[in-house]
Design brief:
The protein has helices at 16-46, 50-75, 77-81, 87-90, 142-174, 176-183, 187-192, 205-210, 218-228, 236-250, 261-277, 281-292, 300-333, 356-383, 393-421, 435-456, 471-478, 483-493, 495-514, 526-533, and strands spanning 84-86, 136-138, 198-200, 336-338. The protein has 534 residues and is mostly helical. The longest helix has 34 residues, at 300-333. Helix 12 crosses helix 14 (356-383), helix 13 (300-333) packs parallel to helix 15 and helix 14 (356-383) runs antiparallel to helix 15 (393-421). It is built from 20 helices and four strands. The strands form two sheets. Strands 1-2 form a two-stranded antiparallel sheet. Its main location: membrane. May be involved in modulation of pathogen defense and leaf cell death. It is a multi-pass membrane protein. It comes from Eucalyptus globulus.
Length: 534
């Protein structure tokens, strides 16, 4: 049957209408995808989700990186496939047993030969290995590069989809926090949490949950916190107590009923999403290691998911332990509390004093889980449902079920817990400012740097009118629609600035009051009026 096939035609002998149709379809799909991304970006900007817009830019950069990888694989396909290695070396660390016949996929690959006995390779067809004539094997065949090309693209797509699914499930879990946040504005909340009321620490709701006989030993604390993450990982009493501690530690008095803690957590989580959706060089390197362990006999598809499961359970347990430690700190300060128990945030509660380390672990878990399911999808597409990567039905069920379970656990349990507990660090996150405030501060910073550079080129001081305005004045120009919130920010964030302005206005008022009396008083010499003018 092979003699009936003709050799492949080049573009010199391909119909122009066929080439034009292929180019038109590819361009149409690309333009539609770009337009869809642009519309989604405009939607996010209209909703003022600046962090998600930046995350979308990260996705764009990942797509650009994939395009560059695709270009490299296409250009280097020939040189790489022409590298020959000894058969003994090429036969080591194989994903499948040697001599195992490849199972047929849903499509049949044709092999063509060119005149002169030279084998012609195409990125989309399976050709012969020229190195076999020398008694060797190719380092990576052209068709192997093509399959690797597809796998990298599938991996990136699965990673982005996994991150979006994680954020969506986490937001669903955190929706109940909106009702808890609204409750803090009611009179009932103020009545039941009277700041003049004295109670024993253990009798408070937070103390009853975290101060018990098991909280005396570290081992029992870790055991209880391990199981606690599965049953009510974030309770109402934990949310309200940590909210109160955050406000007491970072915000001025009187912010208890004004500050929206749930909205702040949502903005900070979106900022963290920018990190998670990206693929750093370390993550790419871990993907290379995963491919290395995919050798026959290693059964990496069994023990790799357990590593991911162990990490996500360890992170969830650590976050629960931090909440319990916050309760133990309250008891160390005394057995009686006034009003709501006040927790003391601090970076020392986290591993190595770095709350961001937990985000890196979650990032690794999401990528590794996406890697497992992407590998399964790629293997099914390339070699069929049952292949040497998962020969038994039990292997397929195990890989898919573990991927789904870890995804739900990380999204619905660990991520909301992370979003709440990581606010207990020593410092606030930039998300404490809303979009208008952040834009105003950035503009002020840029303007200040510009004027600073100009002042270096001039010996004389610039006139007062050309100096950059303070952040407080910029806020008034950037957010006319939220004058009340801006007033709060000005009074809370720059109190010294207001004191300086008030004192300067007072001095000017004094001068204005004294000036009308000056003509009725005896004139003073210039030496006496000079200090008064200063």
């Amino acid at each position: 049957m092979a003699e009936e096939y003709e050799k492949e035609r080049t573009l010199e002998y391909t119909s122009t209408w066929a080439v034009a149709i292929v180019c038109f379809v590819i361009l149409a799909i690309s333009i539609l995808l770009e337009h869809a991304i642009h519309l989604f970006e405009k939607f996010l900007k209209r909703k003022r989700r600046v962090a998600l817009v930046e995350a979308l830019e990260k996705v764009k950069s990942e797509l650009m990186l994939l395009g560059f990888i695709s270009l490299l694989l296409t250009v280097l396909q020939g040189p790489i496939s022409n590298i020959c290695v000894p058969r003994k070396v090429a036969s080591s660390w194989l994903p499948c047993k040697e001599g195992l016949e490849a199972k047929k996929s849903g499509r049949r690959l044709l092999e063509f030969s060119e005149f002169g006995g030279v084998i012609r390779r195409s990125l989309a067809t399976k050709g012969y290995d020229n190195c076999t004539g020398k008694g060797e094997y190719a380092f990576v065949t052209a068709y192997g590069i093509h399959q690797l090309h597809i796998f990298i693209f599938v991996l990136a797509i699965f990673h982005v989809l996994y991150c979006l699914t994680t954020l969506a499930l986490g937001n669903i879990k955190m929706r109940r926090w909106e009702a808890w946040e609204k409750e803090t504005k009611t009179h009932e909340y103020k009545y039941f949490n009277d700041p003049e009321r004295f109670r024993y620490t253990r009798e408070t709701s937070f103390g009853q949950r975290h101060l018990s006989f098991w909280s005396r030993w570290k081992i029992s604390v870790w055991i209880v916190c391990f199981f606690r993450q599965f049953f009510g990982s974030v309770t109402k009493v934990d949310y309200l107590t940590l909210r109160h501690g955050f406000i007491k530690a970072h915000l001025p008095p009187g912010s208890e009923t004004k500050f929206d803690f749930q909205d702040y957590i949502q903005r900070s989580l979106e900022d963290d999403f920018k990190v998670v959706v990206g693929i750093s060089p370390i993550i790419w390197f871990s993907a290379v290691l995963f491919l290395l362990t995919n050798s026959h006999g290693w059964r990496s598809y069994i023990w790799l998911p357990f590593i991911t499961l162990f990490i996500v359970l360890l992170v969830g347990t650590k976050l629960q332990v931090i909440i319990t430690k916050l309760g133990l700190r309250i008891q160390e300060r005394g057995n009686i509390v006034q009003g709501i128990p006040v927790v003391q945030p601090g970076d020392e509660l986290f591993w190595f004093g770095r709350p961001r380390l937990l985000l890196l672990l979650i990032h690794f878990v999401l990528f590794q889980n996406a890697f497992q399911l992407a590998f399964f999808a790629w293997g099914t597409y390339s070699f069929g449902l049952k292949n040497c990567f998962h020969e038994r039905t039990a292997d397929i069920i195990f890989r898919v079920s573990m991927g789904v379970f870890i995804q739900v656990l990380c999204s619905y349990v660990t991520l909301p817990l992370y979003a709440l507990v990581t606010q207990m660090g020593s410092t606030m996150k930039p998300a404490i400012f809303n979009d208008h405030v952040a834009t105003a501060i950035k503009h002020w910073h840029t303007t200040a740097k510009k004027h600073t550079k100009q002042s270096h080129h001039s010996n004389a001081d610039p006139p007062f009118s050309s100096r950059p305005a303070t952040p407080a004045h910029l806020l008034q120009t950037y957010n006319h629609r939220s004058e009340e919130s801006l007033h709060e920010i000005e009074s809370d964030r720059w109190p010294q600035l207001e004191m300086t302005n008030e004192s300067s206005h007072d001095r000017s008022d004094v001068v204005e009051e004294e000036q009308p009396d000056l003509p009725n008083q005896p004139s003073m010499p210039p030496q006496a009026t000079a200090p008064h003018a200063r």
